[in-house]
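Model: You mentioned two targets. I'll fold them one after the other.
Researcher: Yes, keep them separate.
Model: Target one:
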Amino acid sequence: MRYKKALEKPGVFVPFVMLGDPCYEVSFSVVKTLIDLEVDALELGFAFSDPIADGAAIQASHVRALRAGVSMRANFAWLAKIRAYNAHIPIGLLVYANLVHRFGIEDFYRACLENGVDSVLVADVPLFESAPFLQSAQKHRIAPIFIAAPHTSPTHLEQIARLSHAYIYVLARAGVTGTQECLQRGAKEVIAQLRTHGNTPCLLGFGISKPEHAQVALQMGAQGVIVGSALVQILQAHLDDVETMLARLRIFVQHMRAGLCYN
């Protein structure tokens, strides 16, 4: 599994961007830039009309991609191009259940395997409804990713630790995606509880937007961070100037990696 090598060290940096935002060509340039910056893995979104787990910045990213005409089959075609560009970087998807159901659960996970995807997080599927997704993921050798939040019960944390094979997405706070000034400390206890049930790496997400946040995440026991809204805001601010967009993206990633102490 590509994740194994990528997540061996502390200080993992995983960027999230929406596939096809603001169009496939620019999105591909963004992803190639991130790969060239040697990020540890990619988390890519598939646009959906009702992204209930996302805040304003990423909701706008969904809208831009949908307006640009993204589709599931085109998404997979572009994933194949990304995988052809780099054979080694782990690629994870963050999707909503309706997209998977409409495409067909078996067809979706088969397409993931055929186009170089390593993991899938279905954002709006709770543990007790995850069996069909989990079975197909395992059949097609796709790592299922689960979310652990400050309000997750100890019983569910044990299940999440048992079912997760690549990493566990630990929420820095409850609510939706978005940037914030300082991190809450509830995730530290969540990570500690997960560690009692296994050694699956924990990556902290939701609200990570500064190098200081990355440092705090490591202090709380996380293996690294997932950064979405802050990156998407850079794209949104420079939609009319792709060269500046990519330059700002490089600067931001370099600063965040400095916070993780391994650049």
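Model: Target two:
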Amino acid sequence: MKDICCIGHITRDKIITPKQTVKMGGGTAFYFAYGMNQLPRKIDFQLLTKVGEGAMDEVEKMRQAGIEVVCHPSRHTVYFENKYGANSNNRTQRVLAKADPFTVDEMRDVEARIFHLGSLLDDDFSPETVKFLSTKGRISIDVQGYLREVRGEHVYAVDWKNKEEILACTDILKLNEHEMEVISGSKNPRTVAMQLHEMGVNEVVITLGSYGSLIYADGKFYEIPAYEPHEVVDATGCGDTYSTGYLYCRLQGMGYMESGKFAAAMCTLKLEHSGPFDRTIEEIEDIIRSQSR
């Protein structure tokens, strides 16, 4: 039995920023697994993914880095193009290839206390798959993929199909300020958090970019500060890095405030370069200490 199993597609990403164009692996699964791999091994982690033959080298690289990966075959690997303007909160996306969805059969042999579902597109995880996993452990979801529909190569923001059905099985939900508006029509994170809680979610985590983040759990709000990066290089994977830090702490029994601050500090360090989180727990703790004075 693992403490946490992250389930999601590894992607091929082309990231275009005002400073550079980078081609690399990506997706929630990628950023989450590498982020977890940088932290002290206090929890037992496994990644479950699906890629086409051409991306098996990325899976092997992860295994060589010491990440435990279960990989199922797919006809294609997801291929994203992410383009950022001067403001790193603004991103346009194209999807140049799509992977097969995850199935109930592929989930039969995984055992974990928490399953973190890194959806990238709206059909990655069917309600049946989520329901099946919820009989085996707690469900944590990053909402982003459920709100992305591909038409041609372009990605459109859509409301969440089967929202009520899936949220009824969800214990922890992470979303950002844009996603909360798509889901609820509201710009007020407190209102949205309470609505989602009423639909069955125990811990609602809303990231608000440079304004920090808000956690709603056990009937209370926790306001988490944003820490200042030295420079902003690439925001791709920041939300996934936040989830990594948050769940890493929560699985060790840490409180909401402490877990949120740890996650926020991890994000700050991730913002300073392209690629997954590559720093140390000491650097995370330094940021929290130095910027909390």
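Researcher: Noted. Anything on target two?
Model: Residues 256-271 form the longest helix (16 residues).
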